[in-house]
Structures are given as structure tokens and as C-alpha cells.
């Protein structure tokens, strides 16, 4: 039995910011270790996936054989706070619109509703924001979201681990999410680390990795 079998599962939200690949990779890695609860995506995220990856988002997600919901499915289980997983939720990428809604308590779709329920229950909410440059409004929304209990994690890859591919950079951000969630991983070389101690078994390249 995997040591992760008793760990708390995570709900993943994918919204319409550039960098949908972050959410897909995060979901894949959580699924690989049995910690993926479900995926909620916005229609804008599907549009971005088609533009950036040349394929429908749902086609990529269905390969994981997990529960998938669109943001307008307000009758989905995660519309109720009673169904929010104990491990919390990660929104990756988190669009500025979604950030603003969460920061100001506006539950206008399934993603924001689940995120706000996560905060009300005082469970972990990680917002992988992806935008540049940032204006005063965006910075204020990040501050407000953090004051409300969210962890704001900008999709800002580092270079000290000498990434060779886009996938290396994506894995770095997913690794940072795992750090916040308290999940051991070997998704990137940590600072001044000579070896990668991994609890995540190796596996053949996924469909997504072959595309990168």
C-alpha cells in the first residue's frame, strides 16, 4: 500500500489564464500518487488549452480517468462545502478574474464557490497566479486573498536548477505547490541539493510530456 493512501486528497481547479499546462501537470502528478480528488475547469481554460496546446482540455483530462466538472455545473458535489476534500484545493493557473472573485468573496461559478468553501473551512487553498505585469488592482487582490487565508503562489519558475525543457519549468512550479501542500517529491532539484530523493515512482512519459 502506498504511503500516500491515508493522505488528504486535493481538488484541482483550472482557469483561463495562460499556462493551463500547470494545472494539467499538477493533476497528473497528484493522480500518480493517489491524491487527486477531482478537477474543475472553466470554459476559458478549455479555450486556452486549444490555443496553447492544440488540443481540447477535456481530452487531456479524461486520460486520467478521474471526476471532471465544468465551472457551470452548479449541481456538482463540490458546490457544497461538505464535499470539499480535507487536503484543500489548488487553482492552477489562477486567472486574474478568478483571483478577484475569490479575494472579494464572489462565488459565481463552481471554481470560485469551491475555493471560498475551502477558505471557510480553513483548509489549504493555493492560487497559482499567472499574469505579468501586475497592476495595483491585481496586487491588492493578491494581498486580500492572502489575508483571507489563501496561499498566493505565482507561476514564476526559477533557473538555479538549470531547466532544459518547458516541462522542467512546469515541474518546478508543481513542485512548489507540493511543497506548500506538504507532499514529498522529486519534481525539481532543490537549492544546493546534490541528489533527488523520490517517493514518486518513475513512469513512462505521459501524453502531455511527449507534446512538450
From TrEMBL:
Binding residues annotated for FMN, in chain numbering: 16-18, 42, 95-98, 130
The organism of origin for this protein: Pyrodictium delaneyi
UniProt cross-references to InterPro entries, sorted A to Z: Flavin_trans-like, Flavoprotein, UbiX-like
Pfam family, one: Flavoprotein
Positions contributing to dimethylallyl phosphate binding: 160, 176
Chain ranges of the Flavoprotein domain: 8-181
Keywords of this entry: Flavoprotein, FMN, Prenyltransferase, Transferase
Reaction(s) this enzyme catalyzes, per UniProt: dimethylallyl phosphate + FMNH2 = prenylated FMNH2 + phosphate
Keyword Disulfide bond belongs to the record: no
Gene3D superfamilies, A to Z: Flavin prenyltransferase-like (3.40.50.1950)
Lineage: superkingdom: Archaea
Record-linked PANTHER family: FLAVIN PRENYLTRANSFERASE, FLAVIN PRENYLTRANSFERASE PAD1, MITOCHONDRIAL
Family named by the database record: Belongs to the UbiX/PAD1 family.
Primary gene name: ubiX
Molecular function terms, GO-annotated: carboxy-lyase activity; flavin prenyltransferase activity
Main function: Flavin prenyltransferase that catalyzes the synthesis of the prenylated FMN cofactor (prenyl-FMN) for 4-hydroxy-3-polyprenylbenzoic acid decarboxylase UbiD. The prenyltransferase is metal-independent and links a dimethylallyl moiety from dimethylallyl monophosphate (DMAP) to the flavin N5 and C6 atoms of FMN.
UniProt-recorded name of the protein: Flavin prenyltransferase UbiX
Keyword match Secreted: no
EC number of the protein: 2.5.1.129
